[in-house]
Predict the structure of Serine--tRNA ligase.
Amino acid sequence: MISRRTLREEPERVRDALDAKGVDDVDVDEILAVYDEWRELKGEGDELRHERNEVSRSIGELKREGKEEEAEEAIERSSDLKARLNEIEDRADDLEAELEEAMLHIPMLPDEDVPRGADESENVERRREGFDDLRDLPDEVTPHYDLGEELDILDFERGAKVSGGGYYFAKGEGARLEHALIQFFLETHREQGYTDVFPPIPVNSRSMEGTGQFPKFTQDAYRLEGSHDEPYDDDDLWLLPTAEVPVTNLHRDEILLDDDLPLKYQAYSPNFRQEAGEHGTETRGIVRVHQFNKVEMVNFVRPEESDERFEGLVSEAESVLQALGLPYRILEMCTGDLGFTQAKKYDIEVWAPGDDMAEGPEQGGRWLEVSSVSNFRDFQARRAGIQYRPEQHESAEYLHTLNGSGVAVPRVLVAILEYYQNEDGTVDVPEALQPYMGGQEVVEGHDPVSESAVGDE
């Protein structure tokens, strides 16, 4: 969350951020009114507490001096002060809870250099890579969802049968490709200085609040018990939507030492998200599903190093696409598409040539987001209580958190099946993946299981 000091001293900047991010359900004036009353009560409480201490000290002196009547008056005054102090503290506690809840709904303020824009149509393309030396493609590239079924390496019908729409089976060489991609990503980032973390899959509500998924986005998450209409408690469990949640909360409510920083963690996990977007060609196949594999990179850094680390994180994320030989582009998000928690964000979009989309490149095909690299500044650190101590004798400060997907597996698989497709319907395995595929160079597919169903006689 943003600091209360920022809210108090820069309310116009906060209002501008709300407008820039399209947030229309936060009333800054109302929050400031709560904050001002809370501060006044805290100040009055401090004064009453001081006065009561003085009166209490005087009671003994008055009794020793034999001034019983004045001592009784002091006792009565102390009792009145205590009663008023209890009223103030109760009201201040209520206001504190109200203020804390309200602050959770204020988004991170965008960096000053973030492009101003209303929505994704105003994002800014920073550069393209890999288009100068494209491989020869078939005259007509078969979309991954058709090719996957023809090769019997993707099975959507049985995925829907077992779990419902938005789920799929990767089979045989399809499953091997997914495993190979995960291992390749992890090994690449280890060489970049990342420490592996294997996180728990269920995460509690407190963790979801720490990274900013809650309280605004509960409808996107899979709740393990109870319905979305019921209020949640801090210890309620949810299936993680991204490994960002458990890995960032790894150091929740901790004070790290300066020598600990920077920390670079990576985590593979399956991820679960309720929303499936619009139906149709845009989302057909494994482009947008309810469960998907991903490797996530999370960084904890000193505030003065976060800009440089952000650029480094972009390079680390795109390095896997470069090694796979997949063309891609980098977009900078405008304010209207920046997201609730981010101060700055770049998306990395891989080129998939199988389906022509209006917003695709001139070569045809479409863009698929495979990584979002985000700088949260101290937003998540404040929510999760993650601090560091610059020097042993100095006060603790909030550090900065960043993350980036390294990368989303299904969409990279889509790009490989379409970009490395051959005229005969086979798929070349990118050279970087071959060691993780036992040296296999071509995906040729399998013969499908002959019986499609077993019914009653």
Observations:
- DSSP finds twelve helices and 18 strands in the chain.
- The longest strand covers residues 291-301.
- The mean pLDDT is 93.
- The radius of gyration is 28 Å.
